[in-house]
Amino acid sequence: DGGITQSPKYLFRKEGQNVTLSCEQNLNHDAMYWYRQDPGQGLRLIYYSQIVNDFQKGDIAEGYSVSREKKESFPLTVTSAQKNPTAFYLCASSNPGLAGGPYADTQYFGPGTRLTVL
Amino acid sequence: GDSVTQMEGPVTLSEEAFLTINCTYTATGYPSLFWYVQYPGEGLQLLLKATKADDKGSNKGFEATYRKETTSFHLEKGSVQVSDSAVYFCALSVDPPSTGNQFYFGTGTSLTVIP
Question: In terms of Cα–Cα distance, which of A102, A106, A93, A60 is closest to B36?
């Protein structure tokens, strides 16, 4: 089955520790994204990558880092510099499509990782 | 810039009631429009999409029509069920994007359907 996997589903860490969230996709998508979602809130973009070995900051990149060494993988590290890291983290991927055509970009999401910092 | 404005929630309906969730957009390129659904503790699932003006997306009894003249993509369902209780997100994809990122999401509308 093609899709996006995120692991683990629940993650607990002590304050001050770095933690890395995994995101893997077998959809052969070029672009991958990380979002943060707080309770009752919408999605906020952390980082995105449109191609291997390249990535850009989103709206709330401070305290986070990413790498894109392989097309199928886009891990997110939550560093100790992130002041309020407890949240639900969502990974997504997409592929370019013709404007207005049937293959227009669609983002597909993983199941999410809930990070709790104690 | 590009953006999506979505109806504030929460929305509470009785089973079999009619649902409308409003969504309007601003886009500088050629937008495609989407509705996603999120069930508690899960990721977002694509519900429906429309890629050009006057297209109607539909799935599981939900419908939305891409209205370029009113820049809207309102979600409707004729008869909601308890199982439709979830958070619904309107989203926009722009090609070419005015910035590097091409996806924009609304803030989400929480729907609760009571028996």
Answer: A106
Low-confidence ranges of chain A (pLDDT < 50): 98-103
* Listed residue (B62, B56, B87) closest to B75, CA to CA: B62
Dist CA A46 CA B30 (whole Å): 24
Distance between CA atoms of residues B48 and B69, nearest Å: 20
CB spacing of B34 vs A110 below 8 angstroms: no
Task: For residue range B31-77, list pLDDT tens digits in order.
Answer: 889 999 999 989 999 999 998 899 999 999 999 999 999 999 999 99
Interface of chain B toward chain A, CB-CB under 8 angstroms: 29-30, 32, 34, 36, 41-46, 49, 51-52, 89, 91, 93, 95-96, 100-103, 105-108, 110
- Binary contact (B102, A43; C-beta < 8 A): no
What pLDDT does residue B64 have? 98
Question: Which residue in A56, A105, A112 is closest to B95 by CB distance?
Answer: A105
SS (H, E, C) chain A: CCCEEEECCEEEECCCCCEEEEEEECCCCCEEEEEEECCCCCEEEEEEEEECCEEEECCCCCCEEECCCECCECCEEECCCCCCCCEEEEEEEECCCCCCCCCCCCCEECCCEEEEEC
Pick from A90, A106, A111: CB nearest B49: A106
- Tens of pLDDT, residue by residue over A88-111, are 999 999 876 544 444 457 889 999
